[in-house]
Amino acid sequence: MPESPNRRQIIQAGLAAGTGLILLGCQRKGTTWKPMSPDEIEGPPLKPLAEAHPRSRTLEVSPTSGIVSRREWTISQPNMSLINPMNGVDRITVHHDGMPPVMLKAKGEVAGRLEQIRRAHVGNHDDGGRNWADIGYHYVIDPQGRVWEGRSVRFQGAHVKNNNEHNLGIMVLGNFDEQKPTPEALATLDAFLADRMRAYRISLSSVRTHQEINPTACPGTNLQAYMRMTRSGSGRLARA
Asked: How many distinct structural domains can be found in the chain?
């Protein structure tokens, strides 16, 4: 799809700081779907957002509508010589980006940040990149509570070393060792996790964070604490 001048300018502005600023802290140590408002965070249990599908390793489940398309932040395609098929989803892992904290509001700002992350992930090792096929995460949640499409769920991600098979990677933008997730991001995270759990018939015990699988600080102290709370007996995700 040809890139419009306005969108090119937006993405270029978001990339002005360069990929050299990326810490990549995550790597070590139906009906229209919309996020709930902050006032609803402590409300009743989440309502179903999508119809449940029969569990199948070969089934490709389409996400609910309302997700910002990949086309809105990049025209680049994965390097198919480096990518593996997902062949179904049976678990979910939650991350943060671990980059220097910044409050992203406009969609153009988020688009620039995502392209910055993608370029760092696919860049050559000699230039400080990861030499991956594509951005490592399947979905990204921004501070305003929007869900963005990342790597296609048809393909394995690159978000948990040696544990990417059948593993859906969801990243929340922010460095949650240094800042707290916004109420909007947390509301969306709960709702979207519950939606994907129902769609793929994934149990709560199969929703984990990066540091619960590999030695890393990801998803940061504050988001890790929230994930423990929301999955507890009285937590919102546990009641979904």
From this structure: 1
What are the distances in angstroms from CA 112 to CA 5, 12, 108, 117, 118? 14, 7, 6, 9, 10
pLDDT of residue 27: 53
Other CB atoms within a 10 A radius of the CB of residue 159 amount to: 29
Phi and psi, residue 20, nearest 5°: -65, -20
Q: Is residue 129 part of a domain?
A: yes
For tokens 């509001």, the residue is 105
Inter-residue contact 137 to 172 (CB < 8 Å): no
Residue 99: which residues within 8 A CB-CB, separation 6 or more?
A: 21, 22, 23, 24, 25, 113, 117, 175
Distances (CA, A) of 50 to 84, 133, 136, 159, 178: 27, 30, 25, 25, 34
- Weakest-pLDDT range from 3-12, 106-115, 122-131, 174-183: 3-12
Which tokens hold the place of 182?
């916004």
Place of tokens 């309302």: 66
Q: What is the pTM of this model?
A: 0.78
Instruction: Specify the pairing of strand 139-141 against strand 147-149.
Output: antiparallel
- Sheet of 91-96: strands edge to edge? 147-149, 139-141, 167-172, 91-96, 207-209
At 232 the three-state DSSP class reads: coil
Question: Residue 93 is part of a domain; what is its CATH number?
Answer: 3.40.80.10
Looking at residue 129, what is its pLDDT?
87
Considering the domain boundaries, does residue 239 fall inside one?
Answer: no
Instruction: Look at the block and give the residue holding tokens 């964070």.
Output: 209
Question: What is the mean predicted confidence (pLDDT) over 209-231?
Answer: 97
